[in-house]
Amino acid sequence: MRGRFSVLVILLTLILLTGCLSEAEAGPEVEVSEKDYAEDPYSLPYRSAHKNISDAYSGSDLSTELRDELIHKMKTEAEALGEDPEILFEAIRTIYNESWDEEPMMIPCYAEKCYYDGEEVWAVVFNRANTPDGDLDHFNGYYVSMELLDTDEEPILHDFRCR
Questions:
Q1: In 18, 23, 65, 96, which residue has its Cα 20 to 30 A from 102's Cα atom?
Q2: How many Å apart are CA 93 and CA 109, to the nearest integer?
């Protein structure tokens, strides 16, 4: 009897630990590269982060709190890579624009400091729900000029989405 109980406790512990590990893997990713994506904007390596987020969350999970939590993680990663986390934050906030204070229909999953047509940018990809209770399998991506962030010019150089 005791042996069966011990095996059951071990199995339950493994199941719980596996669940915790997959939640940790569901966080966003941040990269820095010298690559210029102007020739192929879709070639950003965001797919793994996008899948992890869409596996962990659904449209019903979307909230400003979840968005802010993911952005905080991205800022922490950017800082660990030697980048200014506030510039990444401003790029993300610019993408949300007037919808910043509303419940989001998309959350960030991937950011890469890179180049677009020779200009230094933050490329940011979001998981998107088409309906409030829908899945997060859809995506939007944006290339945001760091140079144009604090100007009157449009800082989003290019955007793309799932077809």
A1: 23
A2: 14
